[in-house]
Design brief:
single chain; 371 residues; alpha/beta; Spore Coat Polysaccharide Biosynthesis Protein SpsA, Chain A; 2 domains; seven-stranded mixed beta sheet; three-stranded mixed beta sheet; 12% strand
């Protein structure tokens, strides 16, 4: 068997793997019908926001939390050793709203730059048993965010995964790339959760019970990892029965995206660095997904340049791209990211090589701080 024959058969295997993932894994999310609220009881909720040097963002985004249409909630604002006016902004809001509680965290050497320490203090200070998390630079897209997210709590469901989008910036390739990466990640973690293999959530829009937190001894199992207060915790405690996903548009949040490649690259380095701490089954599946994506484009390029059985190669590429577009069509419609469809192949190629670069960088040095 010659070199090109080997590449050709490997290409067929890679296409088959990708088709299986997109139909039987990601299709579970793409084609699922939205299930409405499972509970209409207005349980007491603590909304927790950890902020480090976020004075400007709190002024802009905190009112969207305060003005939620929900009868029984408190807002726990955690000032994580900020050196700007974050604490003063928090105090100015607290004077006007009785349901705001402030936790002022002083930096200590043992946990310097570790968001998990600050979050732990905030969780312990919270009054209610049901916790809803978001970021200081994040806003709910409706006044029903709290009610939608917590409606999925019941005797079995103790974790609720929500969608945290990024705002759109016109004529910005970086913005499209950030939003595409966010869409792909959401398709992955929602699909895995539907299959009973929940492996992560995003701190921009995540809910779980205080009992779940204390049963796991908080973040102690990965406290040495600077990032991962959201995905590593979910990876640790999620099971095939305790995790729900919320797909209502009223439950979505929207964050301010990075505006330079340097800042986004730094942010993604922190996020990617946590994946090595996932459970083995999750790491194995994710590795298979990303490696088969990478090999698909590499093998396709080699075969097309060589004109080796190009008709079959093109047919297989068309098959996979059609399957992908169908999945992305229904998924992006659910998550209000429809404008990205036209750029899917190009964004995917760029994202694959960006992730490869991040992986190589993280092998050389580890990111140390959450901000």
């Amino acid at each position: 068997m010659g070199f090109l024959d080997a590449i050709f058969y490997a290409f067929i295997v890679v296409v088959l793997i990708q088709v299986i993932f997109y139909i039987f894994f990601f299709g579970r999310f793409a084609f699922v019908e939205h299930i409405g609220q499972t509970s209409k009881s207005k349980i007491p909720v603590s909304v927790i926001i950890c902020a480090k040097n976020e004075a400007k963002n709190l002024k802009v985004f905190l009112p969207s939390i305060i003005n939620q249409d929900y009868p029984n909630f408190e807002i726990v604002l955690i000032n994580d050793a900020s050196h700007d006016k974050t604490l003063k902004v928090m105090q100015s809001f607290q004077k006007l709203h009785k349901n705001i509680k402030i936790v002022d965290v002083k930096g200590i050497e043992a946990f310097w730059g570790n968001k998990k320490y600050a979050l732990t203090l905030g969780i312990k200070a919270s009054t209610n048993d049901f916790l809803l998390f978001t970021d200081a630079d994040c806003k709910p897209l409706s006044k029903h965010w709290i009610s939608e997210m917590v409606s999925y709590f019941n005797s079995e469901k103790t974790i609720v995964l929500g969608y945290g989008a990024y705002s759109k910036i016109k004529k910005s390739f970086l913005n499209k790339l950030i939003r595409f990466e966010t869409l792909v990640t959401a398709i992955h973690y929602f699909s895995f959760a539907k299959l009973g293999l929940a492996y992560m959530g995003v701190g921009r829009n995540l809910a779980y019970t205080k009992q779940e937190f204390f049963n796991a001894n908080g973040f102690i199992n990965h406290i040495q990892v600077r990032s991962g207060d959201d995905d590593l915790f979910v990876n640790q405690v999620a099971t095939n029965v305790n995790t729900a996903i919320c797909l209502s548009e009223n439950s979505f949040t929207e964050s301010t995206p990075k505006t330079t490649f340097k800042d986004w690259f730094k942010q993604k380095r922190r996020h990617v660095s946590t994946a090595s701490y996932y459970k083995f089954k999750h790491k194995a599946l994710l590795t298979l997904i990303y490696s088969s994506q990478f090999l698909f484009w590499i093998f396709a390029l080699i075969l097309l340049i060589s004109s080796f059985k190009w008709l079959i190669v093109c047919s297989l590429m068309l098959l996979l791209l059609t399957v992908k577009y169908i999945v992305f069509w229904f998924s992006s419609k659910k998550l209000r990211e429809f404008d990205l469809l036209l750029f899917v192949p190009f964004l995917e190629i760029f994202l694959i090589f960006t992730q490869l670069t991040i992986f190589i960088n993280n092998l050389i040095s580890k990111p140390n701080h959450w901000k």
